[in-house]
Amino acid sequence: MPSDLALNCRNLCREYYDLMDNRSAYVNKLQGELRMAFSQYLGIFSKITTNTSLTLLDIYTLPNAFIEADKQEIIDTIRSTARFGLTYANSKYKSIIQAAHDANEFGYILGSNIKRIRLYIGFIRKYDEEIKSILAAMHELVHTNEDTDFVKQIHLIETFKGAGFLSAVTLMGEIGDFSAFSKPKQLFVYFGLDPAVKQSGKFEGTKIQMSKRGSSIARRVIHTLTLQSISVSRTGEAKNPVLRDYYLEKYKSKPKLVAMGAVSHKVCNILFAILRDKKPFKIITPQEHINQYNATKCDIAG
C-alpha cells in the first residue's frame, strides 16, 4: 500500500503533467493566431514563450503598435526582461521592426486576433505560475522527508544518467510501494510496457504492441529516459554507451519503435536493480555484468 508521501508525490506529479499539457495547448493556439496575424514575429525569439517575447506581445501585439512605439521604450523592455545586454536588445528591436513592416505589407489582422493573442498569453502566464508552485511543493515535500526510505529511493533514481528530480519523483510516485514488486517483469506490466495482442472472439491479431494498460505518466518518463540513454552529447559522445550500442544493434534488424521499446525494457531493468540493490547507478558493459554475476554466484557457493 503506497504511503501518504507516495500518494502526495503522485498527485502533485499528475497535476504537473496535466498543467504542462494544457499549457502546451495554449502555446499552440498562440502560435496559430500569430501565423494568421503576425507570422514574421515567430522567428525572432528562440521560443515564442520566453518572458521577453510574451511581454512585448502583451504590450504591443499589433505590427503597427511596434512601429509607432518609442524605440528606446522597446529596447528597455527587452533589456529588462532578457539576460543579455544592449547589443542583443538593439538586434532584436531591428528584427521586430522589420517583421512588423513585412506583416503590414503581407499580413492581415482582425480585432479578434488581438483579443485571442492577449488571452492566450494570460493563460500561459497563469499556467507558468501554477507549474512553478507545483514544483516548489514537490521540492518542499521531498526536503521535509529526507530521512524516509521513499525519498532515498528518489535520490537513487536520480543517479540514473538522464533522470532529474522531476523524473525520479514521478516514477516513485507512480510506483508507490516498491516492495510490491519482486521481479522487473512486474514493473513492465505496471507501466504498461508489456506486449499485447488484440483479441476479439475467435479473432486473434498478429501485430504485437505495448499493452499501455498501466501508468501513462510513468511510460512518458520511461520514454524520456530512453531517448536520453540512446542520444549523444554535443561533442558526439554517447550519454549511455551501453544502451546506445544496444539500440543501434537492435535498429539494424528492427523498426525504430521496436528498438526503442527494447531499450525501454532495459531502462526498467536498470531502475528495478537500482531500487532492489539500493545502490547508485553505474554504467557497466554486458561483460562486466556477467563477471559480477559469476563472482556473486561463486561467493554464494563458497
Task: Give an overview of the whole structure.
The protein is mostly helical and 302 residues long. Helices cover 69% and strands 5% of the residues. The chain has 13 helices and 2 strands, in the order H-H-H-H-H-H-H-H-H-E-E-H-H-H-H. It has helices spanning 4-37, 51-59, 63-68, 71-81, 86-106, 111-143, 149-158, 165-175, 184-191, 216-230, 241-251, 256-277, 286-301, and strands at 195-200, 203-210. The mean pLDDT is 87.
What are the segments in which pLDDT stays under 50 over at least 5 consecutive residues?
none
SS strand fraction: under 5%
Strand segment count: 2
Question: Please, what is the oligomeric state?
Answer: single chain
Arrangement of strands in the largest sheet: 1-2
Mean pLDDT: 87
Rg over C-alpha atoms, rounded to the nearest angstrom: 25 Å
Biggest sheet features: 2 strands, antiparallel
Structural category is mainly alpha
| Helix share, percent | 55-70%
Distance between the termini: 38 Å
Order of helices and strands: HHHHHHHHHEEHHHH
Total count of helical runs of at least 4 residues: 13
Mass-distribution shape: elongated
Features:
302 residues; mainly alpha; two-stranded antiparallel ribbon; 13 helices
In short:
Helix content is 69%, strand content 5%. With 302 residues, the protein is mainly alpha-helical. The chain has a two-stranded antiparallel sheet.
List the helices and strands and how they pair.
Blueprint: H1 4-37, H2 51-59, H3 63-68, H4 71-81, H5 86-106, H6 111-143, H7 149-158, H8 165-175, H9 184-191, E1 195-200, E2 203-210, H10 216-230, H11 241-251, H12 256-277, H13 286-301
Antiparallel strand pairs: 1-2
Helix pairs in contact: 1-6, 1-8, 2-4, 4-5, 7-8, 8-10, 9-12, 10-12, 11-12
